[in-house]
Amino acid sequence: SRKHVIAVGQLGPIMLAESKAEAVDRMIAMLREAHAQGAVWIVFPELALTTFFPRYIYETPEEYDRFFEEGLPSPAMRPLFAEAARLGVGFYLGYAEKVAEGGRMRRFNTSILVDRDGTVAGKYRKVHLPGTSEPVLKADFEHLEKRYFEVGDLGFNTFDTSIGRIGMCICNDRRWPETFRVMALQGAEMFMLGYNTPTRNIHHPEPAHLREFHHRLSIEAAAYQNGAWVFASAKCGAEDGFAMIGGSAIVAPTGESVARTAGEADEVICHNCDLGLGDYIRRTVFDFGRHRRIEHYGLITAT
Ligand code: CDT
Q1: 3-state secondary structure of 204
Q2: Any bridge partners for residue 99, and if so which?
Q3: Is 123 known to be catalytic?
Q4: Which of 17, 83, 134, 179 is the most buried (most CB within 10 A)?
Q5: At how many degrees (to 10) do helices 20-36 and 78-87 cross?
Q6: Is 98 one of the annotated active-site residues of the chain?
Q7: Which amino acid residue places its CA nearest to atom 11 of ligand 1?
Q8: Which ipTM did the prediction report?
Q9: CATH of residue 282
């Protein structure tokens, strides 16, 4: 059957003083809860092991390297890998990656897919890095992803796993239709993503309700326009007073959200997902082979 129970494990706030081990314990508790509900996969948020540290200004790697992971699994991730493999549950996990490549130290905002047998099935490095590399004048918190991370260099790939073909992205990527279309063209049946979205936009005054609306609009459109499932997992609530939206969701290929979190704490949502549900969409209105008109899309990549 092409039906799988798939879960989203939303995280409430992780305070600056909280250890990675505590965050991992919270995820293991959600992993067990998802497994008890029959889930074979769980999606955790972006930068799920620590507070959303790009809101703070650090000057040197000595100050910010404690937020990063080296190796897979990194020492902090090991208990999560072990329990997931024991239960036979696959997962998506976002983390800050530090790696020596090409004779230098590189840092990325990264996500991985770990299959049900504990093997790493895929890696993605965030492409659309929002915010600035230098502080914004008079902001009470920052969004300094460009300061701490390089633009991802792995592209938008898809990965064949024991439950189907999965594409990954991270937070701001979900606002860009190109993200999902590139993966849909490679046959993605499921899109998995984590996010940390501040409730307030420090770059432009914006009605508060739009933050959650734009999030939902983006993932629902992505699901429908590509005939694929979307699993979106927030880290949310007030981290040391800095509020982030919840609204973790599972969206069917019809564009309808079939499960939503109710609060801004640790919370598991599950759905029995029929991977065939999007087939008719990809055979009809979004049959890429018959209806796409790429001769008219050149500007998208030319500028
Ligand atoms: N983590 C992340 O990418 N958050 C952004 C906030 C944008 S405001 C600079 C988002 O798009 O949700």
Answers
A1: coil
A2: 106
A3: no
A4: 179
A5: 10
A6: no
A7: 172
A8: 0.98
A9: 3.60.110.10
